[in-house]
Known about the structure:
Elements: H1 6-22, H2 28-35, H3 41-54, E1 57-58, E2 67-68, H4 70-80, H5 86-89, H6 92-95, H7 108-123, E3 126-130, E4 139-148, E5 151-158, E6 163-169, H8 176-190, H9 195-198, H10 214-232, E7 236-239, H11 241-246, H12 253-263, H13 266-274, E8 283-286, E9 298-307, E10 310-320, H14 325-349
Antiparallel strand pairs: 1-2, 3-7, 3-10, 4-5, 5-6, 8-9, 9-10
Helix pairs in contact: 1-3, 1-4, 2-3, 7-14
Amino acid sequence: MHRLDERKAFILQAVVQDYVATAEPVGSEAVVERYRLRVSSATVRNEMAEMAEMGYLRQPHVSAGRIPSDLGYRYYVEHLMKPVPLSKLLSPQQTSLFSPTNPEVGEVERLLQATCRLLAQITHYASVATAPETDVVSIRHILLSQPAADKLLLVVVASSGQVEHRLIPVPERLSNQQMALLDRMLQERYAMRPVRELLNMEPLVVPPEMLSVEPVWKLTEQAVQDCIEALSQQEVFLEGLQHILEQPEFRQVERLYPVISLLERPQILMRLLQRVEASNRVQVIIGEENPLPEMRCCSFVASSYRIGDRVAGTVSVWGPTRMHYEVATSAVEYIANALSRVLTQISVSS
């Protein structure tokens, strides 16, 4: 990537910002007038032509102005854009999503869904987040109660704040001694152990002192494994598809359909997002840099979030290459940091 001189850099910045705002090619006269440059439009036109030869701009039609290329956007992201202050991104009410007093903070699925909704609202792009990976999740609490004579309630709470519960049918009400025995076995077998370690566990060989509750234990053991299996599935959350539909780039069905279809296939998205999890900074993937051919008319901005010092999942926004990168990168960075903070607090206090 060639380093641009000051004038070319200013012109590229003007073209990117105007094209992002209007979705219309930008002409040399418009740049001179809008930014009050002390050079002629012919000079700017010559500079634009040179930048087109260098690969930073392109001309969609012979008689049209210029628009940024993927390389032009890349140069803009790495050298020219400036972060957006938090006060311009989010209202105090929106930042309260990550307050410890917000009831959604205690339920990771609700928190991530609300996070995606917030990202879509402030960026006007589609947003995708992945739930915490099983590598960083352990069983913090496992609770068993008998709310009715014919059923037990099992509640499994993960260190990430995720909660699974199951109702277990039983033939009769258990005694306090039997409930205590079941609870002791649950704590010894499952509490504080990593979810990944608990997958596909062999059934417990019931010791003699548990023979009186063996049938109930087998039902309880299966219910626990069902909860663990559910916790091991890294869920993908998606919000804001309507913002893709609003973009002029996707007015043609043949361009829109592959993008929408891919955004609705969570496992493919998850594999792509896992590639950015190892990085400690916001990742910006622009157009042709995208490994998925269907998404090369798009850009995405993603960042990992952490629980403690371990990467847990990702948050991201997806939109056309004509993206407001300042807003997208600033929003994703803030959201990832806020999620890391609140999920680490949940993990420590659970």
